[in-house]
Amino acid sequence: MTPNTPTPALDPIYDVARLAEIVELGLLSGAADPILADVARRAATELKLPVSLVSVVLDEALHVAASHGIHGMWLEEAGGHPIEWSFCATSVRTREAFVVENAQTHPAHHDNPLVTQDGVRCYAGVPLISSRGFVLGNLCVVGMEQREFTRAEMDVLHALATEAVARIEAGRRDATLS
Amino acid sequence: MPALTSDPSRVPGYDLAAPTEATALAALQRVFGVDRGRESWAAACLSAGLVVGFIRSPDSLQRATSALSAQGGAAATVARSITIRMRTHARLLAKSGATTTGAVR
């Protein structure tokens, strides 16, 4: 196996190569990226929802790389949350979009503390897939009322996710050139 | 009303316990395997001036985690996960109004 090649036999959440890719792309640098933040803002605005995240799914936690609508919340202060509460982790395993229209009745999330304690009711996320084929995390939107997501709205999320990945990959190129 | 819990270090309603040295080591071993995970943790503790098996405060765990982060690569992501879990626990515990001794088992 060459370095940074996906290892499908493993649970991708714990894939060493995927996790190394996250570091190589500078996603844990901690520096606020205004372009990624703008992608999150546009996602929330376009879908008329209060919260959007550019998430990075680590081994045991979700790391918030950029966000809109969480200022002053514990999620912003913590910089993420435990992975067992993560809606985005599903896409790392399936490599597909994940939609929850009513979290209170969803079999995997009805007892999620983000639902029972923080009031999350709906979610839509699309995977951020690097040029090397790793799912890094999701571009997602979150709402406090149940709702449906149209195909057109999911198309918007996919388009914005493509923008986010292009920005993230630019970080790799910049690091290589410097 | 938040759910009642018998463990004061768990965040009411979230059922979240504070990370410990044992959970940090287990996380490393899930990613790297038993032996390499143990080696990585031992190196982090050594670098931080700590003794493996005797990390009993949040401050010590954070120092070991910072040293783990300096190893780079996937170890840095494990370190970030531990840090996020520590911060989440601390923020939510404070928000709940509960108190803890700060002990890390």
Structure explained in plain terms:
- The complex is a heterodimer of chains A (178) and B (105).
- Chain A has a six-stranded antiparallel beta sheet with strand order 3-2-1-6-5-4.
- Chain A starts with 15 loop residues before the first helix and ends with a helix.
- Chain A contains six helices and six strands.
- Chain A is of the alpha+beta class and 178 residues long.
- The longest helix of chain A has 27 residues, at 151-177.
- In chain A, helix 2 packs antiparallel against helix 6 (151-177).
- Chain B has 105 residues and is mostly helical.
- In chain B, 59% of the residues lie in helices and 0% in strands.
- Residues 1-5 and 100-105 of chain B have low confidence and may be disordered.
- In chain B, helix 1 packs across helix 2 (34-47), helix 2 (34-47) packs across helix 3 (58-69) and helix 3 (58-69) runs antiparallel to helix 4 (73-96).
- Chain B is built from four helices and no strands.
- The two termini of chain B are 28 Å apart.
